[in-house]
Amino acid sequence: MTDPDLPTFTEAFSNTRDGAGTGLVLAQIDAWLGADGARDGPILWVQDRTAAREGGLPCLRGIAGTGLQMPILRVGARNAADALWAMEEGLECAALSAVVGEVWGNPRSLDFTATKRLALRSRRSGVPVWLLRPDGVADLSVAPDRWRVDPAPSADNPWDARAPGQARWWADLFRTRRGAPTRWVAGHDRAAHRVDLAAALSDGTLGTGGGDDAATGPRAVG
Amino acid sequence: MARWERAEATTPRPDPAPWDDPAPGPDADAPLVLAAEGPHGPVIHAANVAAMQAGAVRGGRVTDARALCPDLQVIPADLAGDAAALERLVLWARRWCPWSAVDGADGMVLDTTGSDHLWGGEAAMLADMETRLEALGQSVRIALAPTHGAAWALARYGDAREICGGPALKARVAMLPVAALRLDGTTLLTLRRLGLKRAGDLMAIPRATLERRFGRDGKALATPLRRLDQMTGALPEPVVSAAPPRRFRVVRRLPEPVMDPQSLLEEPMTDLCADLAQAGCGLRGLRLELYRTDGTATRLESGCARANRDAAHLIRLLSRHFESLDAGFGFDTLSLEALRVEDMAAAQVRLDGGIDSELAVATLIDRLSARLGGQAVQMPDPRASHLPERAEGWAPALRGGRADLLAPGGLGGGGMVAPARDRPVRLLQVPERIEVLYAVPEGPPVRFKWRRKPYLIRRHQGPERIAPEWWRARPGTRLRDYYKVEVAEGARYWLFREGMAGDGRGDEPDWFLHGMFA
């Protein structure tokens, strides 16, 4: 990690029916690791069987389209316990640039202790880890940043008014240690390697102690 | 007296290693040829009996043979595989005598001097060879003669299982055609034009004349005179027998049976790795054999993504197997063997204390594969194809070989070009059929149902037409029109319609969902 303020462990809850969670995770990896090209090792992408069956596999050409240059090493684990073991094993290897794990739902093996183990290993080796929780419900976890991601209508396409434009997501940072939980509309700025966070104006809870920087105008992380 | 035995393993063998795979290949009675690439198209490399009878000749064109025999089966010849199989066969043939070598592309030579009495005489030994080689699926011609050259000639031009003794040698080879002298094509042509048909005709000519006619054009090693001398034994022709590949194996016999051999592994593993280091090798596969006191043995195997000789790492790879090990009354012998040994140079560790990232990733692949199975850990195996599921290949990372795929500098390294098209970030393993609720004549449906949930399409982009790969696909495969759509909630999907209405390849086209965009 280049910035010591950024957490090494991020959890993102999403729906298997869309690619919003994957999109936000890829955007964060690009924003935090891709900017200076400091890391060029592979990304370990661990999926348990249900996540791979319901949500499909990461598509290399699509991921290359988001600007990530790192190769991907995929692990198809049988169950959540194996997936968590593979993630821990990957976090021992400092040559990886990141570890992404997908664990479907709320399996018994993914409890507070499991997240604690991931966080400790990640802090020790310095390899950032993203835990994607497709169809998961937020339970106990030590992750400093916890997001809930849903797809939002995309930006206007400058070339074709009827076509979808750049992807945007409803990104709800419902737990963080870096400020108050806030809901944003997130987008990925590929050229600048950053995640754009704009205040979600349609959200009625806006301004309830979100702090100045979160409420006014776009904010960038990365 | 040197006794040379010469066996010729004749093709065709569609399978380069028939003893690995006992499953029969094509029908033995159907005409079959193996084709090799020639300068003007495929040439027949070998043919079976049925094809020979139908008119196929070695060295002829495949198209000519096909014209003579329309139901001729043609399989590409695997020359490198044949050569490798022959090398293994040569090592296997050392069951009869210790000195054996490959001879040409389709033969081997064994120096059986002093070995025949172990098999009950020369005739019995040849019969045993023929039986055992035929049991391996090889059709062979064998001959036994005092010299290498005579054995070569008799195996090809003599009788079946011919044995030629020393005194009769000269008279016997004199009857053979000149082609039995292992000469090149131009020399054979010259001899034929001179009217010299048999080896005896050459023997009748004065040596000085032969030397003057054939000895000057730079082919001193294979002139008719030299070949004649080698065949009759006047010139020595030693056989160079290749040394067998070294086996790296460490066996420990324990003074008393142990229930848990894990603690005893370190010392033999260190020995094995020291042996490997001395030979400049590393192992890609490791086998631990544990022999129980009651006579049964347990074999445990592990693989490595790249050559390795790090004892601690290898012990760690094996440790997974000990969780479910049945020790019975204990183990009294253990052996460690290196499988798939590869060259591995000693590497300098980095002076700054940093890690070798390539090695670190390789050992991670080993550890993951050892526990989760070799198929579970995959790396990209992209192929140049427009079909998304074919372009997005995954191969077991343990197989290695494509180091460029894990090299920094891009997904797939040099194997993949930059994406020219918008592709989803997730691709379903199998495209899922969607139910069209409200279709319009052009473009994607307005309403559709996927996984029992209805969606309303707000925006769409496309189509991107991907035609089937006609060189691979079955006839009747339909084209695909891909659309990137955005539904009312905002999710973006990759839909395609398989086929077109009225393309004559089936009913109304179906719609499928293939991937999710970010």
From TrEMBL, chain A:
It comes from the Bacteria. Residues 213-222 have a biased composition (Low complexity). Residues 202-222 are annotated as: Disordered. This is Protein ImuA. It comes from Jannaschia rubra.
UniProtKB/TrEMBL annotation, chain B:
Keywords: DNA damage. GO terms for biological process: DNA repair. Residues 13-25 have a biased composition (Pro residues). It comes from Jannaschia rubra. The keyword Nucleotide-binding does not apply. Gene3D superfamilies: 3.30.70.270, 3.40.1170.60. It comes from the Bacteria. This is DNA polymerase IV. Residues 1-31 are annotated as: Disordered. Residues 30-153 form the UmuC domain. Belongs to the DNA polymerase type-Y family.
